[in-house]
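Class, discuss our next protein.
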Amino acid sequence: MLEDIYQKFIHWKPIFLIISFSKQLVLPGFDGIPFFDVSLFFFKGIQKGYITQRASSLSFNFFLALFPAIIFFFTLIPYLPISNFQTTLFEILQTFLPTNAFETVKSTISDIITNKRSGLLSVGFIMTLYFATNGVNAIIDAFNQTYHTVESRSWIRQRLISIFLVVILSVLLIISISLITFGSFILKYLVNHSVLKSQLTIYLLLAGKWIVLLAMLFFSVSFLYYFAPAKKKTFRFISAGSTLATFLILIITLGFNYYVANFSKYNALYGSIGTLIIILMWIYFNAIILLIGFELNASISNAKKKGKEIKELKIQ
């Protein structure tokens, strides 16, 4: 009965035309594999890949790494030779944090970012490195599950790969934060001192800043996809999965910001803990997106492999 309904559905003219078109459609980054062939593996992988369970594991590990990272960066601030940086940071925190939450942590943050504590800095660095590499290890395990691959690398090699990826991602994150934090101040300085007079130039510089930030995000995802899994790479560093993940992360972040700003009642219901709930949800959704993008790369690889096997059988 269900088989008859399915056959009638796929032979219904509009659906038949869509399927026929998808069998001829080859998207950029698909290595010459038709969209239809890739989608068969992709949706099967999404259905049977326990995406939400793996995303829960990833989000927990990265949420756990968040607090040591905050402690480390805050204890690093007194050592930065930048005038009025503490004041600027307070203004940024006051903008993002709920009023009650900011007033609660204001004195503690002020003490941390104004007084040098080498001991706390060292402990914060070690804890950040440990929990961050644990988070990357969780990504490695999640990617290996996509290929149903058992980790063949030694514990030391896997940890070194995790440290390498943490360093790369940290550098890209620092560049991104620097652009966000100092880009507007530098642009304002140039405008106030009449260095920049053309509105078109100002708009182009603003657009360029966001293009660079988008590129940082794209390369962060690409590094994870290319170096994290144990299986030998069958896709390029710049891949369709990286492009999809970058686009979806951008959409989900913009959508999440709009939702929190206009509709969310978490802070009203839960107080300052509402901020933590929102952060955890954002991490969780982005973990799902990371896995979806990698699933696309794996689907292209599997479809390509199957196509080669069919060609070899035909030759024989």
Q: What stands out?
A: The first helix runs from residue 2 to 10. The chain has a mean pLDDT of 77. The chain has one domain: 51-94+118-315. Residues 51-94+118-315 form one domain.
